[in-house]
Amino acid sequence: TGCGGGSDAAGQSSAAGGPTSAAALSANIIVTADSNQVSSKGAFQPVTAYLSRSSRVMKSAGDGQSEATFSTSIATPGYYQVYVWWPQIAPGAGQVDVTVHHGCGTTVTTVDQSILGGQWNSVGTYLMNTGSAAVDIADRRGTVAYADAVRFAYVGNSAPVLAIGATELPLAEDAATYAATLDVTGGVAPYTLSVSKGVLPA
């Protein structure tokens, strides 16, 4: 049995065999910063932010020692795609560390909160056992972290197939900073991507 994988952005797959729609629905869990399921260490302050999921978002001090933990209880074991949400406008944001605690241990990924705010961003799909699961969002020195919301979306009782959501990257502008995101699903996170043909613009 694998420990990671992925699904489509909707996270609407269900386990095979028998009526599972009710179980799948109850296993689509959203935890916001307003919830008592969130704990923190270090320095955070509550702020209002544009296109946030929480009424008050937790903004860290950017001291490299602050971390917010979003916890939940898993009633339906299986594979869950985990998403993180941060505000669209996030002053001082940059790369932060996201740690997922799952059935096979822990996995750390990096997300850039200066882009792609105001939407759900996947950090992979993981095997979750019955019981507790958690996601930590930690800042880095000089970069604040926005702890807004985490989503656990049930995708089934078997690991989805590895796939890349987009086959083309957006067009680049000459002499302009370029950034793009590839949505990788399935397989075992974290992923390593490489250029198999051609070259990326310098």
* Lateral arrangement of strands in the main beta sheet: 1-10-7-13-2
Strand content: 35-45%
- DSSP E strands, number: 15
Radius of gyration, in angstroms, nearest whole number: 17 Å
**Level of helix content?**
under 10%
Which consecutive residue ranges, at least 5 long each, have pLDDT under 50? 5-22
- What's the total helix number? 1
Order of helices and strands: EHEEEEEEEEEEEEEE
Global structural class: mainly beta
Mass-distribution shape: globular
Biggest sheet: strands, sense, closure?
5 strands, antiparallel
Mean pLDDT: 83
Distance between the termini: 41 Å
Index terms:
202 residues; mainly beta; five-stranded antiparallel beta sheet; 1 helix; single chain
Question: What are the SSEs and their pairings?
Answer:
Layout: E1 4-5, H1 21-26, E2 29-32, E3 38-41, E4 44-47, E5 57-60, E6 67-74, E7 78-85, E8 95-102, E9 105-112, E10 120-128, E11 131-138, E12 146-147, E13 149-156, E14 163-164, E15 184-185
Antiparallel strand pairs: 1-10, 2-13, 3-6, 4-5, 5-12, 6-11, 7-10, 7-13, 8-9, 8-11, 14-15
Commentary on this structure:
- This protein is mainly beta.
- It has one helix and 15 strands; from the N terminus they run βαββββββββββββββ.
- The strands form four sheets. It has a five-stranded antiparallel sheet with strand order 1-10-7-13-2. Strands 3-6-11-8-9 form a five-stranded antiparallel sheet, with no helix packed on it. A three-stranded antiparallel sheet has the order 4-5-12, with no helix packed on it.
- A hairpin with a 2-residue loop joins β8 and β9 (105-112).
- The radius of gyration is 17 Å and the shape is globular.
- It starts with a strand and ends in a 17-residue tail after the last strand.
- 39% of the residues are buried.
- Residues 5-22 have low confidence and may be disordered.
